[in-house]
């Protein structure tokens, strides 16, 4: 393999992914993700879209170190990803990501101490800093059951950011929220990214969310998931602009075309 570009934080090289014990996977090598090749630049927002079952979350788990490739290799800062670590933090769709028996602040302090990211004396200060960043400092002493879904996601995001990871991995983090809360958190995530410069890798089913949040959007095909295209969306981040609408339309057409027969694709082109 060639030397990794110094601006790349992640490089995936001919990656095949599947579940189950390694020995069984070698005997039955059918893949959920097949021959994935892509790179992610440090500080970008990299969004993954594709049909259900194409391996988006599977790929995210491999980036997190929870799943080893059947073939190929994923590099983080030039080193093969072999296991999870605090340099990669997750935010999931599920609201119940926090420990119910700890306060919001206590959840973050515990994560910092478990990961040994800061001395104990500094853990509270850092926790409060990131709670303020995501606008839930007022709920620092509350327990998760006392929070709304949106506030729980903000708290989970604060916990992930407090680790100051190299990469923030997000799997449909706003998918279960109402439209108003979802839009607000999308706006806030963009502002947080500008302030922190964290590298963001996110899975979503929403084309609009992908365009609004992403600087690059990777389109995957149906199972087995293959990387079909990586689209630069950095100039299309404002809802309602011609650039936003054009990129959204293009991504939608690419997703639809992958699932249609050649004859159906011709009919779609004629309509357009």
TrEMBL record:
Residues 10-247 form the ABC transporter domain. InterPro entries: AAA+_ATPase, ABC_transporter-like_ATP-bd, ABC_transporter-like_CS, ABC_transporter_ATP-bind, P-loop_NTPase. It comes from Ktedonosporobacter rubrisoli. SMART domains: AAA. Keywords: ATP-binding, Nucleotide-binding, Transport. GO terms for molecular function: ATP binding; ATP hydrolysis activity. It comes from the Bacteria. This is ABC transporter ATP-binding protein. The lineage of its organism: Bacteria, Bacillati, Chloroflexota, Ktedonobacteria, Ktedonobacterales.
